[in-house]
Design a protein that fits this description.
This protein is an alpha/beta fold. The protein folds into 2 domains: 37-351, ABC transporter type 1, transmembrane domain (ABC transporter transmembrane region fold, Up-down Bundle), CATH 1.20.1560; 374-622, Rossmann fold, CATH 3.40.50. It is built from 21 helices and 14 strands. The radius of gyration is 35 Å and the shape is elongated.
């Protein structure tokens, strides 16, 4: 056993299965692979090809012309030999054969050019449409689907599976030519000399017997290679997205073992698939040699006996050389078709993911004139129907009121906020925004009236300006600057190279968490929504930045309804009301003083939590989310 050392001193064992990591993404995607030819999948693919059907027909016509020219070339050569080059041949026949040969070659070139150009263009357009359709669908599917689906597997479908479809589209047209060429050669051989043609085709049964044993094993190998490739992509994406945690926990070795395990399994299945894909090539080559030997021996004897012309033998040899080419090509295209059918099924699975959250017929649009109230009426909700996270919860947030939700971890605070934006559907009861059930309003208008600031703000690659006006692209530069000034972000933005035109790196990694959070507040202010949801928006920032955000909240919440989840209870005691959740049930409701007087769960949580906030000035704590210190 040889060991290859990498720069990171992680050994890679060759020839044996590397150690499995004990933590990580080991889930094998459960896939149902289609048949080598699946009519349902073909129909779904054809829906994307249909707009380009005329160009595809042109490509098929070009392939047929190309194939016919391929069939004509050996016949022209045989004619030239027998009628123009042998004793007694006519010189005019030779010249005619040369002219015909030139015409056929030109037709061959033209047909080949049209075929390659049109097929390539159509394939790229179809792939573009597929990617757009899949991305559009993934933007609309419910968060419950995204919660349980690995990014790497989705990327595998968007990239690898779509690329498999490209290969299939390009080779499927060629397959038409291969079939026409194969049938044409058989007809021509039997027409030229029936007995010699049958003798030449006697090798075909051997090929069919071999394929009977080869096909099921090859199909299984192609399936396994496809599955391990998807699994490897999932492990790769997880390792990349979690690189900070990996390095923080010094988990590089374990993470490498995890990925190496997947990659090694993929290597083995790919090698096996490659072996089955290539094994037919030497078999076909051997049969080609046998068939040519038969023609030379038997046909040569017939020529010597005067029963056959030399040109016919030459034509036979040309056709035999070409005869097994389409067989070899169709054999290789079987693996392409197999991958395409499974890829097509995986693509249609994405396209068919049910969109649980959709506008109902006749859904109304919320307008800026709506009052901004939020109400929960006997809401029951769970990510699994048999495990409710919220149990018969009822409360109302009046227009312009700021209400804080507190409670232990897992009490359902974040889930309740997600229901306000209708990221999920309730199992019982109803959530009302502006007096309308969220199921009765359009998603677009709901998104315009409910703005969310999360614990970990997501910034996109692009300029600071574009990120702040992300959900209101028509906002002017002056509006963006005014919003940044209002939340206290203007100063640090001005210090950036190029200011508001400064480009942010992936997820805004070139900014601190507090700066990213201030930009998310500016984004919410530019959105000008009537309802603002703050989900642990100050949980991971320092006290100085929190003071800035407390001041920003005065501006952001002015004239708006606020729903606040705060990890630091001392910062929300100035809220109009505080709702206390425990195990998915509402157990307390009132302002800070009322709840402290009850000496219930909120009082206990606050007293335990308060000692952690001695570094926050008293005036800021007292201000809470409704007011800020000067």
């Amino acid at each position: 056993m040889s060991v290859i050392e990498h720069d990171d001193d992680v050994p890679v064992n060759r020839g044996q299965r590397p150690p499995r990591a004990t933590v990580g993404s080991h889930r094998i995607e459960e896939e149902i692979f289609g048949k080598a030819y699946d009519p349902k999948t073909i129909r779904r693919i054809w829906a994307f090809v249909h707009p380009y059907r005329r160009r595809m027909l042109l490509a098929v016509a070009a392939v047929i012309v190309f194939t016919l020219t391929q069939l004509a070339i050996p016949l022209i050569i045989g004619f030239a030999i027998d009628r123009g080059m042998t004793a007694g041949g006519d010189h005019a026949n030779l010249i005619g054969a040369v002219v015909a040969f030139g015409v056929v070659v030109l037709l061959n070139f033209g047909a080949s050019y049209v075929q390659e150009t049109v097929v390539g263009e159509v394939a790229e357009n179809v792939l573009f449409d597929m990617r757009r359709a899949m991305f559009s669908q993934l933007q609309r599917v419910s968060l419950s689907f995204m919660d349980k689906t690995e990014v790497g597997r989705l990327m595998s479908r968007l990239q690898g599976d779509v690329n498999s479809m490209q290969e299939f589209l390009e080779t499927s047209v060629i397959s038409v030519g291969d079939i026409v060429l194969l049938v044409g050669i058989v007809v021509v051989l039997l027409t030229l000399d029936f007995r010699l043609g049958l003798l030449t085709l006697a090798t075909m049964p051997v090929l069919f017997v071999v394929r009977i044993f080869w096909l099921p094993r090859a199909r299984a190998a192609f399936m396994a290679a496809h599955e391990t490739n998807s699994s490897t992509a999932g492990a790769l994406a997880e390792g990349i997205h979690g690189v900070r945690t990996v390095q923080n926990l010094d988990r590089q070795r374990v993470n490498f073992d995890l990925y190496d395990d997947k990659a090694f399994g993929n290597l083995k299945t790919q090698l096996t698939a490659s072996k089955y894909a290539q094994v037919m090539v030497p078999i076909v080559d051997s049969l080609t040699g046998i068939a040519m030997a038969v023609v030379i021996v038997v046909g040569g004897s017939m020529v010597l006996n005067g029963g056959l012309q030399v040109g016919v033998i030459v034509t036979f040899l040309f056709y035999i050389q070409r005869f097994f080419d389409p067989i070899r090509s169709l054999t290789m295209q079987y693996s392409v078709m197999q991958r395409a059918m499974s890829s097509g099924q995986r693509i249609t699975e994405v396209l068919d993911v049910p969109v649980d959250i959709a506008d109902k017929p006749g859904a109304v649009a919320l307008t800026g004139a709506m009052d901004g109230s939020v109400e929960f009426r006997n809401v029951t909700f769970g990510y699994r129907a048999d495990h409710p996270v919220l149990k018969n919860v009822s409360f109302r947030v009046n227009p312009g009121e700021t209400v804080a939700l507190v409670g232990p971890t897992g009490s359902g605070k974040t889930s309740a906020m997600a229901l306000v934006h209708r990221f999920y559907e309730v199992q019982g009861g109803s959530v009302l925004v502006g007096g309308h059930d969220v199921r009765d309003v359009t998603q677009e208008s709901l998104g315009e009236q409910v703005a969310m600031v999360l614990q970990e703000p997501f910034l996109f690659t692009g300029s600071v300006l574009d990120n702040i006006r992300y959900n209101k692209a028509d906002a002017t530069r002056e509006q963006v600057v005014a919003a940044a000034k209002a939340v206290g972000a203007h100063e640090f933005i001005e210090r950036l190279p190029n200011g508001y035109d400064a480009m942010l790196e992936q997820r805004g990694s070139n900014l601190s968490l507090g700066q990213r959070q201030l930009l998310s507040f500016a984004r919410a202010l530019v959105a000008d929504a009537r309802i603002l949801v703050l989900d642990e928006a100050t949980a991971n920032i320092d006290s100085y930045t929190e003071r800035q955000i407390q001041k920003a909240l005065l501006t952001v919440l002015e004239g708006r309804t606020g729903l606040v989840i705060a990890h630091r209870l001392a910062t929300i005691r100035g809220a109009d009301r505080i709702i206390v959740l425990q195990n998915g049930e509402l157990i307390e409701n009132g302002n800070h003083d009322q709840l402290m007087a009850k000496n219930g769960l909120y009082a206990r949580l606050y007293n335990m939590n308060y000692a952690s906030f001695d570094d926050i000035p008293e005036e800021v704590i007292a201000a809470g989310p409704k007011a800020a210190s000067t």
